[in-house]
Design goal:
Elements: E1 6-9, E2 12-18, E3 21-24, H1 26-29, H2 32-37, E4 40-45, E5 58-61, H3 70-91, E6 95-99, H4 106-118, H5 123-133
Parallel strand pairs: 3-6, 4-5, 4-6
Antiparallel strand pairs: 1-2, 2-3
Length: about 150
């Protein structure tokens, strides 16, 4: 179920978590080469203050702060099913980039929630799988909150 590519290119961090579903930092979101090479069709920008790149890619913002405070948890809890449904609806035909500040906290959390909601893997297996690909990937909150 997991397909991983982790690259650091010009200080960018990006990783293909599932076929066609990527996590990344801000720099990868702004890289026209990365977006083109990986045929990214949708960007889900999980930041408050970073603008989207100028492109014809579908753009969605989930305004989360870098530190994932209580407001952010509430926002995700309230909207997680809509987010999961959107990713599920589009993941078979489009490549999706989940982007956050450094690519190692918020976007992996969102990807892990997606995997938890759409597979039979338990949270421990999901977390271990993500962390074996890069030790800096962390989950600031328990997946069971979502």
């Amino acid at each position: 179920i997991f397909k991983y590519f982790i690259k650091f290119n010009n200080n960018m961090f990006y990783c293909e978590i599932l076929s066609g579903i990527w996590i990344s930092d801000i720099d990868a979101m702004y890289s026209k080469e990365f977006l083109k090479d990986n045929t990214i069709d949708i960007i889900i920008n999980c930041t408050i203050n970073y603008n989207f790149p100028d492109s014809n890619i579908t753009k969605i913002r989930i305004p989360l702060s870098e530190m994932m405070n209580e407001r952010d948890i509430y926002l995700l809890q309230k909207n997680i099913q809509k987010i999961i449904d959107f990713i599920t609806t589009n993941s078979d035909t489009k490549h999706i980039l989940l982007c956050c500040y450094n690519g190692k906290i918020i976007s992996p959390l969102l990807a892990a929630i997606y995997v938890k909601k759409t597979s039979t893997l338990d949270k421990k297996s999901i977390m271990e799988s993500f962390q074996t690909k890069h030790s800096d990937i962390t989950f600031p909150h328990d997946l069971d909150l979502f």
